[in-house]
Amino acid sequence: MSRAGVRAISNTSWCPATSVTTSCSPSSSTRCRVLISFRELLEERRTARAAAGAFTCYDVTTALGVVRAAEARGVPVILLVSEASFRAPDARLLVPALVSVAEAARVPACVQIDHVSDPELVRAALVSGAGAVLADGSRLPVDENAALVRDAVVAAPPDFGVEAELGHIEGGEDVAAAVAAGALTDPDEAAEFAVRTGAGCLAISIGNVHGTYVAPPQLDWQRLEQIRESVGDLPLSLHGASGLEGEDLRRSIALGICKVNVNTELRRRYLDELSARVPDVLPGLRLLDLQDALVGAVADAAGEILDVLGA
Fold first, then answer.
1. 135-172 b/e with 16+ CB inside 10 Å = b?
2. pTM of the predicted protein model
3. What is the end-to-end Cα distance of the chain in Å, rounded?
């Protein structure tokens, strides 16, 4: 089976810090194929003292905007598919569509199925063509959470990435509801959890939430430092970045975060642009003009985040 979910086209000016397999030679053209796994992508970002931007994409238009922003900055990127999208009757067609966008990108890109809690759906994600899944058992007792993640790791194809979540990040992936922070990640528990599961990345809860923040978040920086120390080299991810200040994002990266998930801000900019453009394009039914405007709006929003996450 093709590992298209972890492939991307890259120009030769992008040089990952880790070793990756390429199909080009020194005498080839200025573009070459780079095969990069979820693990390698995260490791490259960590080595660069930066973080990978992971953006929820509900359609090809959103994905094109995200990739445009990443290409403009020469950085790798992760295209996320929400559980609701993956669960919908016809929406699994979205995965191969996003894989195609990732393959055509001029920077390394990976498609990840996000926040999947149903074991059957986790198994479906493993064979979907994506390059990674977040096996999310964070609402379960820790032993059941660990079992869900470990089963996914054991069943995963080679180079497939499995992310886990410990503690619970409150809020919804597909709505902008503002909520309080959920159960925070225990550093000691994180160390044991990492060993038990073999997860390739750990989403942590340090006061961050999905959606819009009711008030300025109070992130527990000491907890993040303790988690980083307890899990060693395991990549850490921070969800709920749309409501965080750039200073907070930069500080989180300095303390060990190497993947940052973004959803709400992209949806807001997409819908704002849609509302503004419809009156102009409606008389001529100019859908291509509308699509180009939406791609541009998403690219601007994603680019602002990527600028903070580092080159």
1. bbbbeeebeebbbbbbbbbeebeebbbbbbbbbbbbbb
2. 0.86
3. 33
Q: How confident is the model at residue 216 (pLDDT cuts 50, 70, 90)?
A: low
Q: What is the dihedral of CA 43, 46, 51, 54, to 10 degrees?
A: 10
Mean pLDDT of 257-274: 95
200/202 Cα distance (integer angstroms): 7
The token pair at 2 is: 């093709």
Q: Which two tokens stand for residue 279?
A: 């009156």
> Which residues are marked as active site?
114
Average pLDDT over residues 221-231: 97
Q: Which two tokens stand for residue 170?
A: 């409150």
Helices (H) and strands (E) in the chain, counts: 11, 11
Per-domain residue ranges of the chain: 4-309
CATH 3.40.50.1980 assigned to domain 4-309? The reply is no
- What are φ and ψ of residue 286, in 5° steps? -85, 80
CB atoms < 10 A from the CB of 4, how many? 18
Which DSSP letter does residue 174 get?
A: S
Helix, strand, coil shares of the chain as percentages rounded to 5?
A: 45, 15, 35
Tokens of 6: 């972890």
Residue 10 is predicted with a pLDDT of: 34
User: Length of the chain in residues, anyone?
Assistant: 311
How far apart (Å, rounded) are the C-alpha atoms in residues 66 and 54?
A: 9
The residues facing 135 across adjacent strands are 116, 164
